Amino acid sequence: MWFGPGFADNSGITRALTIRPQKAARSRAAAHELQPTDLRLGHIVRLLMEHATVVVSGTKIAQEIDSSRSEVWRLIQQLRGLGVDVAGHPATGYQLRSVPDLLLPEIIRPMVRGTIFAKDLHHFYKIGSTNTAAMAAAADGAPEGSVFLAEEQTAGRGRGANTWHSARSTGIYCSVILRPLLPPSDVLILSLAAGLAVQSAIHQVDSRVSADLKWPNDLLVEGKKVCGILAEMNAEATRVRHIVVGIGINVNQASFPNDLPATSLRLATGREWSRVELIGALLKSLDREYRTLVNGADAYESVRQRFVENSTWVIGKRVRIEENGSAFEGTTEGLDSRGFLQVRTSHGVHTVLSGTVRER
Ligand code: BTN
């Protein structure tokens, strides 16, 4: 979910894409970034999951992760601190009481095998912002398909000046690095495709939930925001160097402060969701959208058309647009060939390049 200084204006987009200089991204990353998760934690969880019905000895785990038994005990204590329910102690061995809903690469990787996201998965228990970390890594040459996942963000960023409140293990905080051969002017389509991917992933996990797409890429359930996407790119005039697509989904929040127009999938459906299942579906769906977009001849038109079909905002909605310090009202009239929103006003049709869209 999000709040921030611009919260009341934050149901739309202020800038569809933000271009950040490499150096600034790097120093921001240094300031915010915390240590990635010790890979041995994921390894232990995977081992315990694979032997879910038996107690696994400390010696076996120590062998598997190439450590000592006392180190295993220390790591198990760390896992418990993170909410993983492990029974046992060094003398008896260890057993999982329930499958943990943590976004560990060891758990996610098998689910996304065959996609561009299976190779470079990075997990953080706590980080400033996955987008900041991904932008810095991309500037340092991280490969396309790198994924940055966090249980908690301490400086989660939304569009404009907004922050994205990212409480521990209730939401999905995910950023991916893409390196499409596209001119910067075509990148909005990619951002729309990311919204379609989230919409489809949510629907795959629970077909009762049909999230509405609010241009350019917020997702709403019952009129309240359930997902926001922050696409940031580093580009030359004619060529994109890299794009980071950051996705925040409100999954298991039980409430929101005051009267924020936000909801979570749990509030909408009355049940806890598996974040693991949802991120698996999301990365697969994003992989499909992305491959189609960079390979397919009619891909732009397909994204545009599906966005129009799956959004109540793009045609015939009375809206108020706030853009570059001014505002106007009109009725939405579709998307142009690059995905920009068309709004009919008393002065003719206006193309919205960026800005906040609100219902009138
Ligand atoms: C919005 O304002 O609607 C966009 C919110 C995007 C939030 C996500 S959470 C993962 C990634 N890391 C960030 O700091 N922001 C994005």
Overview of the molecule:
- The chain is α+β, with helices and mostly antiparallel strands.
- Helices cover 32% and strands 25% of the residues.
- It is built from ten helices and 15 strands.
- The strands form three sheets. Strands 1, 4, 5, 6, 7, 8, 9 and 10 form an eight-stranded mixed sheet that branches.
- Helix 1 crosses helix 6 and helix 3 crosses helix 4 (69-81).
- Residues 1-33 have low confidence and may be disordered.
- Biotin (BTN) binds at residues 2, 129-131, 153, 156-159, 162, 164, 173-175, 218, 228-230, 246-248.
Give the SSE map.
Elements: E1 18-19, H1 22-32, H2 39-50, H3 58-65, H4 69-81, E2 86-89, E3 93-96, H5 105-108, E4 121-124, H6 130-139, E5 147-150, E6 171-178, H7 187-205, E7 212-214, E8 218-221, E9 224-235, E10 240-250, H8 265-269, H9 275-295, H10 299-309, E11 315-323, E12 326-335, E13 341-345, E14 348-352, E15 356-359
Parallel strand pairs: 1-9, 4-5
Antiparallel strand pairs: 2-3, 5-6, 6-10, 7-8, 8-9, 9-10, 11-12, 11-15, 12-13, 13-14
Helix pairs in contact: 1-6, 3-4, 7-9, 7-10
The structure holds biotin.
